[in-house]
Design goal:
331 residues, mainly alpha, two-stranded parallel ribbon, binds tryptophanyl-5'AMP
Length: 331
């Protein structure tokens, strides 16, 4: 079976975008791949975060993975910082990546334009991510559209490493879902729905209660064209159609047919109810799991122990290839 790797970073509360673009598909794919899922907590340090908030987010994201149906019996589920090999391979990746190619990453450029002062860690973020993927001999990396550029740079660096030092890394392939690869904001449907958002109404969080979800959809921005059709000239309505189709596992065309002759109010309320049906039970389970941190920590340890074994083997191979001397009794 091919190996699948993916992760989320705990910089904020997970959104419907994270769910439809990533986690929902992971759940389905774990049946057909040897899957590894991480809470990428080291990535969260690339921005300045409150420590307590970060710690809470790490527990919540791990709980969300379990609540959404990722199965620790079938898949490896762990926290990135529990496997120190991530930080080690990231250094090697830094040394194999050109400054110019890292400078072209659009997420970094966007952050830099917005925040002005950014850390070296933020610049090195794609190399840490490349290490995550390569440590596990990954074949496929399911992500939303916004992460594809990072998977591409990972491939480039892995290919370069292999040609410089000989076959070492499996070259991974990024894949995006057919529908739902880029869920947009409800208030500003020309911008992706993001964890880091000032306007709460723009985002559905996986922990939102039913009434909040209904309210947010009710307020969603549409247009004055009054026709439920997908198209570039109608980003709000298109986004609602994408959400509806993705949750109900139908094509956009089928969703258009379903809503033919309906008004925008119906589109909003039916989409809201679909979302509630899907994420309501997950939200309730997250709450329950969060009350049992001991259990979460136990699951974290089980996952990290499994992940570490694979990661160490790869890292030892890499260290040898680049000319480092392995410590006696290194494990
Ligand atoms: P993060 O936490 O930003 O996002 C997690 C996943 O959710 C997807 N996503 C979306 N999909 C559709 N619509 C949206 N509005 C939306 N917003 C986010 C992302 O594409 C991603 O798949 N760097 C990664 C975490 C990471 C990782 C990795 C991923 C660390 N190491 C190795 C894959 C492989 C990140 O910040 O994801």
């Amino acid at each position: 079976m091919d190996i699948l790797y993916s992760a989320t970073k705990p910089t904020g509360k997970l959104t419907l975008g994270n769910y439809l673009g990533a986690i929902k598909n992971w759940k389905e794919m774990q049946e057909n791949y040897n899957s590894i899922f991480a809470v990428a907590d080291l990535h969260a340090l690339t921005i300045n975060m409150d420590s307590e908030e970060l710690r809470e987010n790490i527990y919540t994201q791990f709980a969300t993975f379990l609540a959404a149906g990722l199965d620790p019996e079938k898949s490896i589920i762990y926290c990135q910082s529990h496997v120190k090999e991530h930080a080690e391979l990231a250094w090697i990746m830094n040394c194999c990546t050109y400054f110019g190619e890292a400078s072209r990453m659009t997420q970094f450029k966007d952050h830099k334009a917005k925040d002005k002062v950014v850390s070296v860690g933020l610049f090195a973020y794609p190399m840490l991510m490349a290490g995550d993927i390569l440590l596990y001999n990954t074949n496929v990396v399911p992500v939303g559209v916004d992460q594809m550029q990072h998977v591409e740079i990972c491939r480039d660096v892995a290919i370069r490493f292999n040609s410089r030092y000989g076959e070492t890394f499996v070259i991974p392939r990024g894949i995006v879902p057919k529908v739902g690869a880029k869920i947009m904001g409800l208030q500003n449907p020309t911008k992706k729905m993001a964890k880091s958002e000032d306007n709460e109404n723009n985002v559905i969080y996986l922990e939102d209660d039913d009434d909040t979800i209904r309210k947010k959809f009710k307020r969603a921005v549409t247009d004055s064209l009054n026709e439920i059709k997908y198209g570039d000239d109608r980003p709000g309505v298109s986004n609602l159609l994408v959400i509806y189709s993705s949750i109900n596992k139908i094509s956009i065309e089928e969703a258009e047919k379903h809503f033919k002759g309906s008004n925008y109010g119906t589109l909003k309320s039916e989409t809201a109810e679909s979302v509630i049906r899907e994420i309501g039970p997950i939200r309730d389970k997250i709450k329950e799991l969060k009350g049992n941190k001991e259990y979460i920590e136990k699951m974290m340890k089980i996952g990290a122990d499994k992940a570490r074994k694979i990661a160490r083997e790869t890292l030892d191979k890499v260290y040898k290839k680049v000319g480092l001397v392995l410590q006696a009794n290194s494990n």
